[in-house]
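Page 37, top half.
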Amino acid sequence: MSPQSNFSCTSCARSFSSPFARYQHLRDTKHQDFRLSCNRQFDSPMDYRAIHRDMHVECEFCEEQFLTASGAFHHLEGGCCEKSNTNGDTLARQIQNLDIDNILTDIGEHNGGQWKCSLCSKGFRTRSALVMHWNSPAHSSKPYHCINRGCDKHFITLSALFQHLESESCGIAGFTQIPLYYLRLTDSIHNGEQITLFDFGR
């Protein structure tokens, strides 16, 4: 193994004479390399983050710091945020009301003059009535789905969906993009704005 191999880019395999030269290359090309703080190579972004805890995601409501977006959503879903009055149920209802284009949820769609449940085809005059029906004992399922339409995974909680995205298992986004998705989504929720594909860089 040559001395320069410690200073190579894992995205393009180009070698550099120093860590700073590699850093400049990564900065200029936007390549991802999970050795920015040291010369140790990691197999995945999750492995890198387990050791290098230099990135953070902040709760939009109380400003508590988390290592991952899924951790911040888990904080909200668990009712731990004292400033948001949010838990898993209230967060799910907020998202379901704002996710008119079914980007994160699959509860139903507007069909003519009513909202149709995706599971039983029952019709409702308003989206909020559909959300109430979906969250009732009539259907107990996984309301969230992966934003990659080619991935068929569904999730019970938003934090589980974000753990899936952070794992990069379906290839929809790089690990470093997920905090931006978190910020855009929580901004939409906080402002009561419709969730759009823009929230997920699409």
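Page 37, bottom half:
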Amino acid sequence: MAAPPLGRLVLTHVLVALFGMGSWAAINGIWVELPVVVKDLPEGWSLPSYLSVLVALGNLGLLVVTLWRRLAPGRGERAPIQVVQALSVVGMALLAPLWPHVAAVAGQEHSVAFLALSFVLALACCASNVTFLPFLSRLPPYFLRSFFLGQGLSALLPCVLALVQGVGRLECPPTPTNGTPGPPIDFPERFPASTFFGVLSALLVVSAAAFQGLLVLLPSPPSVPTGGPGPALQVGAPGVEEEEEASPLQESPSKAAGTTRSPEPAAHRLLSTRGVCLLGLLAVTNALTNGVLPAVQSYSCLPYGRPAYHLAVVLGSAANPLACFLAMGVLCRSLAGLGSLSLLGMLFGAYLMALAVLSPCPPLVGTSAGVVLVVVSWVLCLGVFSYVKVASSSLLHGGGQQSLLAAGVAIQVGSLLGAVAMFPPTSIYHVFRSGKDCVDPCGP
């Protein structure tokens, strides 16, 4: 006997969120665990630069997915998604015991296992945006917000786990009479990196199991035409949300009432001014949140102290799922409104970039007001951009599978361009300068 409509609706929302949680959990987890692994790996603090390059190379996953679509047209997203999830689970499970292993390359020791498995995980994460999102065209638009909520959890949960682990805990010794402070006292982590990666492997297994649960709830084949709602869409109250968001990509939404979408009109809607602007918003916001701003987060926060940095990271990650909750209740469908929100987010981003440029002596350093301003700016910046991403993707849902595929490509291309743009100033020209723990570079 089928589950009650409300129970089926809630279960589908939960499964979609858990499914989205597995999209970037692996790479996000590696990033937050870097302060632990750099202590034992030969690359030291040059490891983040290696990881940035590997994540950029992970965009080869886009080419692999494109090749799959050419060689197996109409086969749907099930097989690519299962391959992506298998790579994530196996890669993270192998990373747990193998990450400290090093090998000699060209006469120098390198963390070959860590770098190779990080590249495999980067391939899987980059491919997830262009496989997971098109699969969601089989569901009504409001489930897309649950998916992005899960993506927010893929950043938040590793951060919380790292805080529980005690990453980056240190204490500054008292300043002696001669005025020369001693080295900071580092506290050991509560559990090793292998345990951290093992927990992430379990989260990825849960995400893969959630996808299998969705396949059970949505028995229709993935090759169902993307324009019309098949039986798999009837997971909630029919005719309510679907009618409300029938064709948000059209210039005149009222014309969509009572019409059956077909692939050709969907393509026209995607290439309309509204569709192109929504894709542009997705590319720009992801370039900022996944490429530009993360590259300067430590420079903008650490001058105010490690507590400010950890608060900015954790609360900023929490702003993503909170923005998804907000989009579930209040969805902005106005292109002008989304553009205004993007400009607001850019204002916060400009302030944070200015703090990074002025590091290690930004304004209000050493004051409570400076800490509050930098943390609140990070939370509001990431929250506003997260809302714009969710709203834009929800509106693109009206164009069917091809629109969601284009959304995934825009997200990934924007992220890549943002990361590439920040590589020269951070790793080559060293525009940004960082301070030292327990040393006040701004004193008299």
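Margin note: The radius of gyration is 23 Å.
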